[in-house]
From TrEMBL:
Entry keywords, A to Z: Membrane, Transmembrane, Transmembrane helix
Transmembrane feature ranges: 21-42, 48-68, 80-99, 119-136, 143-165, 171-192, 213-234
Signal peptide limits: none
Entry protein name: Integral membrane protein
Amino acid sequence: MIMQQISTKTLNMNVQKDLNFTWSTQAILFCASIIACIGLNVDSAPVVIGAMLISPLMAPIVGIGYGLGNSNPKLLSKAARLFLIQVTIGIIGATIYFFISPLNTASAQLLARTEPTLWDVLIAFFGGFAGVISSAKKDGSNVVPGVAIATALMPPLCTVGYGISHLNASFILGAGYLFLINAFFIALATAAGTIFFRIRSGERLNVSLRQQILIVIISIIIVIPSSISAYTIVHNSFVDTQLSQFINEKLSNQYIAKQNVDGKNIQISVIGQRLSASQVEQLQHSLKQYHLGDYQLSLTQLTKGNYITPKEFQDYMKQSDTNDTIQTSTNSADNASLTNVQNDIVKKYPKQISNIFVGQVQDKANHTISIIAIQLSDNGKGKAAEIEKAATKTAANNNVNAVVRMMTPSQQSD
């Protein structure tokens, strides 16, 4: 029954109606551009979605695809001119906004528009196909908002404006490519849908073989970079999964303070019983079992024996952009609890403790754990076990999830 509701006459009427150049439509586009910029700037997804809903940028793209599907040069030229005008308005509005905006840091919303993948191609094509079907139905207007959100034309266009205002070529090229993908494959899907409806209604097609070959070549050229990007994402996801399995099975007795994959180098920082050189070498060889044989394992151990060394601890804290001593400059509940733990331990063992180092890290499950490293004085060497037990109990009483490590005077020069 859906096919019976579809009409090429309705499609033609809806496309032609949306291609009329009016100042009010261009004003709406400019407003949508500014709204999208604000959403991208403050990292607000709802605001960005709102901008996509009110943006009229879809109309000329659908017009281009409809003109291609009908081999109508006049309609194609009209839609292309409107498209170029609207793209120019959107980029100018975005560039002006980001040039005067006091927020210069690239948000997650902006960064998300700089790395197109093959999935963006699929979204644009099927979104465009859904759009042309809705345009050919008398009651298809309820599909349009969803298509506008899914195909996301306005955000990458505004990200191009951000790149221009900050003279950042990576943003301009990345977001520009994403916009090109969306626009081209929406138009291509519209053209395919138009041709399908024409065949169904018994019309004679006049799309030349040359035009068909040209469209296929352009499609392949546009898809290649996004396919490479998609492969990279899938590959990185596979490596992360294999690495997590490796850590769970081979380093289950260690606390993973940090893990990172940089090129072909796997960097892992651990806290726990110190591993010997032969054990580390075995870990390197066991990477082959997890399809990571061409990666080099770089294992940083933050402990010596059963103790954490102050040098390794402080170096790690500096790398993690955390403080290497107790700070009370903020009013957060975590810092207040850590301060209570510090004060309680120092009050109980004032002569046995020379210093306390703390920092917070996240494990592979993104759970935050506090590290408390207690530096003992000469008087405290014989009470290391007692102080460690008391510190662990004190942390628990203050609802602090902490790993307690002791540093003896002999280790302070390590």
